[in-house]
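fyi for ur records
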Amino acid sequence: MAFTIDLAGKTAVITGSNSGIGLGIAWELARAGADVVLNSFTDRDEDHAIAKEIADETGVKARYIQADMSKGDQCRRLIADAGACDILVNNAGIQHVAAIPDFPAEKWDAIIAINLSSAFHTTAAALPMMRDAGWGRVINIASAHGLTASPYKSAYIAAKHGIVGLTKTTALETAEEPITANTICPGYVLTPLVDAQIPDTMKEYDMSREDVIKNVLLKRQPSKEFATVEQLGGTTAFLCSDAAAQITGTAISVDGGWTAL
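which gave:
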C-alpha cells in the first residue's frame, strides 16, 4: 500500500501561527490540502493578509482568528469559532530567561499559561469535534527542552516537559479511536526571530556570524545546522498521514542530535 499525504476536507487549527514555526506548519498543511485556521493574540490587517496569501496560493480555505492563549476561555473560544478541528497544532509559546530566585512570578505564570495550559484547553475543546468527525490529530510543539534541561529556563522547561506528558495522556485516552496525539521536539530553528538576534550576539561575543551560529546558538546541536520551519511542517504533515496512524504518544525530536547526547 502506497501512502500519500492528502488532507483535503480536514481543518487544521494552529496556535501561534502568524510567524515562525507555526506559520511554516500552516503552509505545509495547506499544501497538503487542509483548510487552515491561523491564530495569535494580535488582530492586525497583516495577520488576515497572511491567511489570504495561503488561500490564494494553495486553493484551500484559510482564515485568521485572534485569541489570547494565556486565557483559557479564549483558547476554547478559538476552537469553537473555527467550527471544526480535525488537526490541532498547539504551537503558541513565549520564553523568559532568569535564575530561579530571580524569576518573576508573573513571567512564570504567563509561560505556564501560554506554553502548557493553552494546549490543555484547546485539546479539551477539540477532542469532541474529532470524535464526532471520526478522525483527529493532536500535535503539540514542545522543544528539545521537553526532553532535557538547561539552566535559567525553569518555566519554559517545566512547561515543555508538561506538554510531553499531556501528549502521552491524550494518546492513552484516545488510543482505541482513530485519533492520535504526538509531540514534536525541535532544537534550534532558524525563524525570523532567531535570525534577528544573531547580529546582537555577534557583537556580544565579538564573533563572525558563522562562529556565533556554530559555537553559541548551536553549541548543543551536534549537526551544527538549524532545523527549518519547512522541516517541522513536513514532520507535522507526516503525523497527519495514514502512514502515521499507529504513531501516538511519542515525542519526535527534530534537533540535529541534541537529545542523543
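The helical segments are 20-31, 45-58, 72-82, 105-133, 154-173, 192-205, 209-217, 229-239. thats all i got for now
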